[in-house]
Amino acid sequence: MSPVVKRKREKFTIQSKYLLLILTFLCIVVMGITFTTDYLGGSLSTVSGYVVVPFQRGVSSVGGWLSNRSEELAQLRVVLQENETLKKQVDELSIQITELQQEKYELNHLRELYELDEQYADYEKTGARIIGRDSGNWFHSFLIDKGTEDGIGIDMNVIAGNGLVGIITNAGPNWSRVTSIIHDNSNVSAMILATSDNLIVSGNLELMKSGVISFSQLVDSAGQVAPGDKIVTSHISNKYLPGILIGYISEIQTDSNNLTKSGNVTPAVDFEHLEEVLVIKKLKQQPE
Amino acid sequence: MKKNITIAFMILAFFTLQSTFFQKVTLGGIGPNLMIILTSSFGFMRGKKNGMLIGFFSGLLYDVFFGDALGFYALIYMYIGYMNGSFRKIFYPQDIKLPLILIAASNLAYCVVTYCLLFLLRGRFDIGFYFINIILPEIVYTLAITIVFYPIILRINKWFDQPAKRSDPKFV
Q1: What are chain A's domains?
Q2: Which of A72, A134, B35, B79 could cross-link B58 (Cys pair, CB 3.0–4.6 Å)?
Q3: Residue B165 in domain
């Protein structure tokens, strides 16, 4: 037995501190490469995609089932209380409905004006399920269960329901990573729907605790922008398609330079309970 | 061989659990850091080289899926594994205090490094906010999970050592 063991031990002659140096060097080189080029570990992401994604699919459906059950139990008590108050509300609301029906005609008219509806419908979309979330607590990105094999590529826009969720930043054959607009270093070029003033919407971890993200560099010389205004993606962005709803202004103040305004945006999408998303397959800039 | 396959499987399992199940059962939106538990505990149980390699591959897996630059988290986890390896001499399986302290310290180091490199350098200076709302809950949650997972890791480590002890009396 001993010769076998000896031969084995001879193989491992690199001292751990040298191995540490080698691997450190390797990491720094690879980091440099990924920073300067578009390379995101092509073959690595393929292999790990096929190994990890099936597990994630399974476990995330189990986890989802469990959290749904626990939420149901917790909600049962609240629901009983709510039932009574809701009955009262029904009466009030039926009066409001009549008012709203009148407003609906107005809304339809406005929609035609902005052609928002048609623009959304024009894009070819594909549904995808979220199978994993960024396991660190610092950023908000997540994995979906479709990739290049389903025609998804980097820089495609992701929406859920009516609002913008984010953008695809990495794609493997059967998975892709979505960087959401609440991700701490994401910036989206946007505009106010009513006045077409441009602004930048940036994700912010600190503000996200209170359910909002920030915007800045709004030039609003006419002073018409007010809380509640709709923010959509702008025409000048080179990645985001124009006219996708981002959210509503919740707070606005003038910057110290007296030229621009900044404040907070409430996103249109509920990022906490996101389960399924739609990927728009149309790219703003078609690759040459 | 048996050892390598088991460890590879554990890295996969911990990564999968961390990015799916534990993102659903969060405490105030904060999930635990299972990869730190794995890297750190194999570090002080099996020495510098093992800890370093496990850290490297755990970090690399994280990089492939969530990292912006390949190799960034691999580097952090690798150094954490290596540092933990130097505590092997004072590690005794019966003692739970040292593992808990080391895992908490590793998690703190990981958080501080991430904060400094990815947030502080971009001008997010409110360290108090990040400490109270992210770093502290993550460490507490990780420690709570450690108490559940640590006995399993300990048993697996014992299982790795058994045949070596029988065949090679020099080590005893």
Answers
A1: 115-282 (2.40.10.340)
A2: B35
A3: no
The domain in which residue B142 lies consists of: 2-13+30-85+96-159
Nearest Cα of chain A lies from the Cα of B102 at a distance, in angstroms, of 19
CB-count exposure of residue A279 (10 Å: 0-12, 13-18, 19+): buried
Residue from B132, B87, B14, B20 nearest A65 by CA? B20
Which phi-psi region, left, alpha or beta, contains residue A184 (left: φ > 0; alpha: ψ -120 to 50)?
alpha
Query: Which of A35, A21, A283 has its CA nearest to residue A154?
Result: A283
What is the model's pTM?
0.75
Question: In the 8-state DSSP scheme, what is residue A184?
Answer: T
The total domain count for chain B is 1
A264 contacts A211 by C-beta, under 8 angstroms: no
Model confidence pLDDT, tens digit, residues B67-94: 888 889 999 999 999 999 999 988 888 8
Helices B72-85 + A16-36 axis angle, to 10: 160
Complex ipTM tops 0.95: no
Distance from the Cα of A55 to chain B's closest Cα (Å) equals: 7
B52 contacts on A by Cβ (under 8 Å): 16, 19-20, 23
C-alpha distances in Å from residue A238, one per residue of A225, A242, A285, B160:
25, 10, 7, 54
DSSP code string of A60-73: HHHHHHHHHHHHHH
